[in-house]
């Protein structure tokens, strides 16, 4: 545990851990002070010092001295694609989340991100790190991680604001802390929406405990990006991984997680009642497409409202190999191609898979050329209405 010490007479701060001392940059001092004002004592956690160091490094980063080729720093003229499903993996966060979905957390660098964007003609990536729940049941740690992730990603975005935007990380399942965090991330740090996981500590997004959170998001006209997470279940010994298989959860369970949480949102009426929320659904809906009809059968009074929400306030990203056949299942529900968005899932999906996914979009028989082009740029502009600077 680090101890926060105020240096008398100077108003400066330092962190002390045993014989180690970390003198704080004014940016780190600000983050600590503002967190304390919101009831988050960052000094309690060992991940805080490396997180602050990374945030400060981005705040002082000079792209001209970085050695990154100039051609990567500026978007090419034909780089008009907006990637709504891209992930930033800070080094300090990777240390506390060495794997996710049964797969090792990938290394991330600014240069590799920009090279990926150049390879796919991506002009702007909207970065997200939606999972704060590394210490299950620990409200203070979850709030601290969310605060540091938002500060970290905001500092990175400021390095190249013409190339990056970001979604805020919440502190769910803790509603009060999440309302404070997301509001601050949007209004102070410049987040363009909020990223949530399919479940937060085993609670799916339609859980009644989250109603007040979504009412707050509704008041903000928020764009909500949802990402699948490991399924969890409550046992006498606490939360444990549900549905364990021999295969990585990211392959065997993530697509079912998307279905679980959006059916939960529909059956709880969250999806249809909050008419000012727009949702980005990952991986063209995962396995959701196979169960929509079956899930709403016998609910004739709700069917129209649920389908209207899926048609008008849900946007479907392309991350993964989703355009070979899966897209046809989505369009079979008469969902307009104008609600399709491009997502790469970089760096969780490596280049060896990103390229085939990109090719599957280009050769998809389900869309014409104009619809494919709109999916990569015009549709996202309509969703964000100027919030991402394009």
Automatic annotation (TrEMBL):
Keywords (A to Z) from UniProt: Decarboxylase, Lyase, Signal
Domain Amidohydrolase-related: from-to ranges: 82-384
GO BP term, example: secondary metabolic process
Organism superkingdom: Eukaryota
Record flagged with keyword Signal: yes
This protein's GO CC annotations: cytosol
Coiled-coil residue spans: none
MF term (GO), any: carboxy-lyase activity
Keyword Lyase: yes
Signal peptide: 1-18
A Pfam family annotated for this UniProt entry: Amidohydro_2
Family statement drawn from the similarity comment of this UniProt entry: Belongs to the metallo-dependent hydrolases superfamily.
The protein, known as: Amidohydrolase-related domain-containing protein
Species annotation: Mycena albidolilacea
């Amino acid at each position: 545990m680090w101890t926060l010490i105020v240096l008398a007479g100077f108003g400066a701060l330092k962190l002390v851990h045993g014989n180690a001392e970390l003198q704080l940059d004014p940016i780190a001092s600000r983050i600590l002070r503002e967190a304390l004002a919101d009831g988050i004592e960052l000094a309690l956690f060992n991940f805080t010092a490396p997180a602050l160091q990374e945030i400060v490094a981005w705040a002082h980063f000079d792209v001209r001295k970085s050695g990154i080729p100039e051609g990567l720093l500026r978007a090419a003229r034909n780089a008009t694609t907006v990637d709504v499903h891209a992930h930033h993996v800070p080094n300090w966060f990777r240390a506390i989340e060495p794997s996710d979905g049964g797969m090792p957390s990938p290394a991330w660098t600014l240069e590799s991100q920009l090279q990926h964007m150049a390879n796919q003609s991506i002009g702007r990536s909207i970065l997200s790190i939606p999972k704060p729940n590394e210490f299950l049941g620990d409200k203070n740690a979850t709030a601290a991680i969310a605060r540091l992730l938002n500060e970290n990603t905001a500092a990175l975005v400021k390095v190249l604001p013409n190339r990056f935007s970001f979604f805020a990380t919440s502190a769910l399942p803790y509603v009060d802390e999440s309302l404070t965090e997301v509001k601050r991330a949007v209004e102070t740090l410049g987040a363009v929406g909020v990223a949530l996981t399919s479940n937060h500590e085993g609670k799916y997004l339609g859980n009644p405990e989250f109603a007040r959170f979504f009412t707050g998001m509704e008041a903000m006209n928020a764009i909500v990006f949802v990402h699948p997470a490991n399924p969890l279940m409550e046992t006498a010994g606490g939360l444990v991984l549900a549905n364990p298989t021999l295969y990585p959860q990211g392959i065997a369970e993530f697509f079912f997680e998307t279905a679980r949480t959006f059916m939960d949102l529909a059956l709880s009426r969250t999806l249809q009642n909050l008419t000012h929320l727009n949702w980005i659904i990952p991986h063209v809906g995962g396995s959701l497409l196979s169960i929509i009809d079956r899930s709403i059968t016998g609910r004739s009074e709700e069917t129209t409202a649920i389908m209207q929400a899926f048609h008008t306030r849900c946007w479907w990203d392309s991350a993964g190999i989703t355009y070979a056949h899966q897209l046809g299942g989505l369009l079979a529900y008469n969902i307009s191609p104008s609600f399709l968005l491009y997502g790469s899932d970089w760096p969780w999906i490596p280049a060896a898979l990103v390229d085939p996914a990109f090719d599957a979009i280009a050769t998809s028989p389900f869309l014409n050329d104009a619809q494919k082009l709109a999916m990569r740029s015009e549709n996202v502009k309509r969703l964000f209405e100027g919030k991402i600077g394009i």
